[in-house]
Amino acid sequence: MANIEKRGESYRITVSCGYDVYGRKKRAHMTWKPDKGMTERQIKKELERQAVLFEERCNGGGVVSGAIKFQTFAEEWFDKFAEKQLKESTVTRYRNLSKRVYIALGAKRIDKITARDIQLFVENLGERGINETKENSGMSPKSIRCYVSFISTILDYAMKLDMIASNPCSRVTLPPLVQKEREIFTIDEASQFLELLQSEEWPYRMFFTLAVYSGMRKGELLGLEWKDVSFENRTIHICGNSQYTNRKGTYTDTPKTSRSNRVLKMPESVMDMLRQYRDWQSEEFVQIGDKWEDHDRVFTQWNGAPMSPHSPLKWLIRFCEKNGLKRINIHSLRHLNATLLINSGADIRTTSAALGHSNTTTTLNIYAHTFEEAQAKASEAVADILKFGDKEKK
Length: 394
Hints:
Blueprint: E1 3-7, E2 10-19, E3 25-32, H1 40-59, H2 70-85, H3 88-105, H4 115-125, H5 141-160, H6 187-197, H7 202-214, H8 218-222, E4 229-230, E5 235-238, E6 241-245, E7 249-253, E8 262-265, H9 268-288, H10 311-323, H11 330-343, H12 348-355, H13 360-386, H14 388-393
Antiparallel strand pairs: 1-2, 2-3, 4-5, 5-8, 6-7
Helix pairs in contact: 2-3, 3-5, 7-9, 7-11, 11-13, 12-13
């Protein structure tokens, strides 16, 4: 039942419209002002009509009250949905993004946020000096898209609760992504890299050898446990993903996507090396004794604790500088593995499955140029075999 309250020359109509994410009853309000010259009877009749229409709009498949500030609603979303449904790493990333978003949009009501509000925020992120890690630089297009994705996620949730009619993020123009040239080793550089590794300490020698031959993500390598390794079948089951947050420390999460849970067949030489590394680790365990922490992790610190997520990259940078190698990151070795797979003749499904991509479209989007080059080489090989051009000249 609507409640009508006269306020000066206008009327405030209040209706009940369900419950919020905390289970509290929600009320929606609207103000109606009669036209000049309307009689008391006309005002009463129109007021009743407006109240009925407003109540229907709020409770009959229309929009319930969105009179809640973005920051307040976002915190409700974190508490009631994100903390329970999303991965810890995703929640942490959204928490970091929320700081800037709250400054720009936190005080605005969600039903009052427009595409222009978000567009202005996007433009502000691209301004020089905004990026705290790069002097006189704006946020990268990828980072800006992450901010908008967070805002869109919150507003999509509001739409599901019938609190807003549409998501203004869908009408925002985003900066185009810049496809950077991937820095990866050539075959000769990769061979030199692997050869130089053989004189290094066991944990990193094994880590980066496995990175080249498996194409695993950094978190997948760090999350490997010995129970995932089958020496008999020469396989490695990738079913974990090492993550770190300030709140939880180092922990094992599920793989990035459902298809990231996969089994890879490894060359015999790599498995022999992995066996030698396990024997070395066992000797370390005996020497350290009670100080050893048994986590079953393949890659550990000196005392058996999980290897820090920052350690491999720091070591790799020092290693490349020391040996005069091209500076790359860990993900570059994943790209190297994919490139080698494609050039060896692996089709897109095989490559996608080996990399653990969610679908083949992802693989094609990332490695379209590599597939094109491999196809061109294959066509040239066919032409060389058939000698078609030479026959025409004769």
